[in-house]
Amino acid sequence: MDNVRMMETRRRIARHVAGFEKVEIGDRPGMRRAAVVLCVAERDGEACVLLIRRSPRGRNAGQWALPGGRGEPGESVEQTALREFHEELGVALSPDDVLGRLDDFPASSGFVITPVVVVPEVLGPLAPCPDEVASVHYLPLARLTGDGVVHFHDTAQGPLLQMRLGPGTTIHAPTGAILLQFREVALLGNPLRVADLRQPDWTAI
C-alpha cells in the first residue's frame, strides 16, 4: 500500500469517527475504567488493525485482545490508551495519531472499556512485552469488512457474537464487539451500537 492510499484510509476513518455520536458512560461507584487501542497500520501492502494474544499467564491468559488496559488516577482515556500501547508493544504513539473514540463498552468484568482509534503516519518496530503479550497479529481491514466475518451463534441464553476472522481466530465480546463497531462505524460509516451484545461467561473473570 502506497502512502497516498494509506493517507486516504486515514482520512476516511477520521471522517467516519468524527461524524459518530459516541456514547459515554458516566462514573459510578465501583466502576473501573480501561482503554484499548484500535491501531491501523500498513503491513505487507495492506492496511491492518493490530490484535494481540495475551500472555499465557496473568489476567485474560491466552485471549485475543486489543492493546490496552486499566486507567491510572488523573489520566485521560487517550493517555491511558497510549501508555498501555507503549507498555505492551514498546512503541510510543503521538497524541496527534489519535482520531477519536468509539462507544464506551460495559464489560461483564466490571470495566468500562473505551476504544481509541489511532492511525499513525509510521508505526515503528514493535517490541512486545512478554509478560503481557504472547503474539501480535495484523488483521487486514479488507478481511474485517469481508463477507462471513460477523456471525451470531444460537445458544440457550440467546445469540452470541462470533467475529470469524480466520482459522483459529474467532473473537467474542467484548473485543469482538469493539471490532464489530470499528468495522461498521470507522470503516463502513454505519452508526452501529454494540453495548447490548452478550458476553461469554468466561470474559467476566
Automatic annotation (TrEMBL):
Any single Pfam family the record assigns to this protein: NUDIX
UniProt keyword list: Hydrolase, Magnesium, Manganese, Metal-binding
InterPro entries on file: CoAse, Nudix_hydrolase, NUDIX_hydrolase-like_dom_sf, NUDIX_hydrolase_CS, NUDIX_hydrolase_dom
Nudix hydrolase domain segment(s): 31-165
Keyword Metal-binding in record: yes
Swiss-Prot/TrEMBL cofactor(s): Mg(2+); Mn(2+)
Origin: domain of life: Bacteria
Recorded family membership: Belongs to the Nudix hydrolase family.
Name of the protein described by the UniProt record: CoA pyrophosphatase
Source species: Actinocorallia libanotica
